[in-house]
Task: structure prediction
Amino acid sequence: MNIFKQSYKIVRKNSDTIYKGFGFKHHSDATQYYVHPNNESYKGTTTLCQPIGEALSLFTQFVNSVDSQNPPTAPTSDYFTSDNEEITFIKLAVPADWRENNIVNPKIYAYNAHFDNDNLTIAAYAENGEYINEDWEKNADFYAMLPCFCVLLARECSTNADFSAMLLEYAESPTVDLFVNLHEDFYQAHKFDEYSLKYADLSNFDTANMTSFRENFSIISENKNIANSEPISEIVPFGEGEFNTEYLPLIPQLSEELPKTVQSICTAITAGDVLSTLFYGPAGTGKTMSCKLACQAIKLPILEIINCTENLDEFILGKFLPQEDKIIFRESYVTKAIREGGAVVFEEINFAKPQYLAFLNSLLDDNGFVRLDNGEIVRRHKNFRFFATMNLGYFGTKELNQALYNRFNVVVELAALEDDFIIKMLTTRVPQCADKVEKMLGVYRKIKKKIESEELDFVISPRNLENWARLAKYEGYVKAAEKTIVPIAKSDRIMENTIRGIIILYKWG
Result:
């Protein structure tokens, strides 16, 4: 039996709305949020169905109950996985509101479900724990498909790390985009699978030698709560007189807020426990800004910011230049920072040619030094600090030499900016876009999702949105997008038309 195909034909008699499903209904079109690359709809649309959508809602509700800080209201709910991941078993208490709203039959207080080698066994239980002895096939609408899809969701989480991470993200912060994404990924991964389905009592199923999700997740949750509750030490800046007076104007003066991930390492940078810091993450996540904010917080002047895609060459430490009738060696600001103290920032360091980075191996070693082309050896000043940024996984980037990578004292990942942060950034910098910012964000999410799901060599970042908003003040959002958003396709005509198609989904007038 193909229950994934069948799920599009089964709908509750009392309502076709997906319970706790953002207002979506059975067969709702959700194309504007996500289209899976394996979607075979002749219209190319993403359509949702009630059984899968409600299974996602119920399973997510169970995941949210597993919190070490808040004792679960349904302590019997859990799922178990065998060591070889071939067997999955779930015990699922049905919340009261699901019965009160007739999402499930009022007699059902719990489900058990078992998956093993494409065999599905399900059971329903009354309030007193008594097994409800009904025939599955004759009562498909009575039992619906909740237990089937919930045990398969449990199996998907135990065997697919990406899906599990996305579901946990959704459980923590539910959004309509993630809901559609989970529904569609789940369906597309299993739409051709056939299962043998039966109804039988599972109350005596032995889980003693299986791994409990609740136990594992409780440990993870507890550790996360401990990490989040640990106080961040007060930032200690460099004192007066630590730097050459002429460099003090190079201390950044910015209005942005210092991210917590950066704040936690600032004092270690001041103290010298962290000499070299690498920030990495997607474009537009504020990697260079984080370097500047850290230096501002600890009053550290930045003597040089170098974009490795353009400015890094063999003369990075200085070069010989003619002066009147002499040839003199003029050192760079990188060398001045090494000699006298201060910071340098190498942007997009993994674009650089390895031979131009070779001097960093000795500079960032325990007894840091560099050898200039004039033969002079410059010892690293005690107040020299090195920052670097890089994007991962983008076209044209390279992996850093392992020896250099190991010389970074701290490596900080900056995740993609949250929607709220992007909205605040855009409306602060371009107040005129306030009434369009949600639509702009919708375009951003759809393009980003397509790039990620199809592993395309394109990049869209919040910077593109800011450029779009600024130009739209003069020629409107559709025309401005042609010069700021469509060009991310880098002349790929198919991608350009895809972006245009996404933009015209919205009303910009």
